[in-house]
Write a structure and sequence with these properties.
Keywords: Membrane, Transmembrane, Transmembrane helix. The protein is mainly α and about 150 residues long. Helices cover about 80% and strands about 0% of the residues. Helix 1 packs parallel to helix 6, helix 1 runs antiparallel to helix 7 (about 120-130) and helix 3 (about 45-60) packs antiparallel against helix 6 (about 90-115).
Length: about 150
């Protein structure tokens, strides 16, 4: 069988490759009907969700919860999280988590742009690796588009 290191590495690559067609379409052909149809698909979220669950299952130990919630207030603490991230499997699962959530946010930005006739290529691009900046960029773009729309 594959080692946990190979599984983590494969999952990392698989997840990354899986989301790229969606970003490519939203950026290269935002108004094409194929993009609008493809972006509606829940397939990437199901696939990434299953992959994430599998990695979580493989990386789970009885210490996982104790490591995360080490404080007496039952709040995650940084040192415990840092120790967890020493594991390739944890990093791979976190990456899959990010890919799924970032794509979900990118899709929201894309839909909002289509609905309000606002450029989203820059915001969608940022969502891939810098999601909070992508969301902020879209909010700013909407404000700027709104102010130019009113001035004419």
């Amino acid at each position: 069988g594959m080692s946990t290191s190979q599984i983590a590495s494969s999952a990392f690559t698989l997840g990354t490759v899986a989301v790229l067609p969606f970003y490519t379409l939203m950026i290269a052909a935002p108004n094409a009907s194929i993009t609008k149809r493809t972006v509606e698909s829940t397939a990437p979220y199901v696939a990434l969700g299953l992959l994430y669950a599998y990695l979580l299952y493989l990386s789970w130990t009885p210490d996982t919860i104790r490591a995360m919630f080490a404080s007496k207030y039952w709040l995650p603490e940084l040192p415990g999280i840092v120790r967890m991230f020493a594991s390739e499997m944890t990093v791979a699962s976190a990456w899959i988590h990010l890919l799924a959530v970032d794509l979900f946010a990118a899709r929201q930005v894309y839909h909002d742009g289509i609905k309000n006739n606002i450029e989203t290529r820059h915001s969608v691009s940022l969502c891939l690796l810098f999601c909070p900046i992508g969301i902020a960029a879209h909010a700013l773009t909407k404000v700027l588009a709104g102010s130019t729309g009113r001035s004419h």
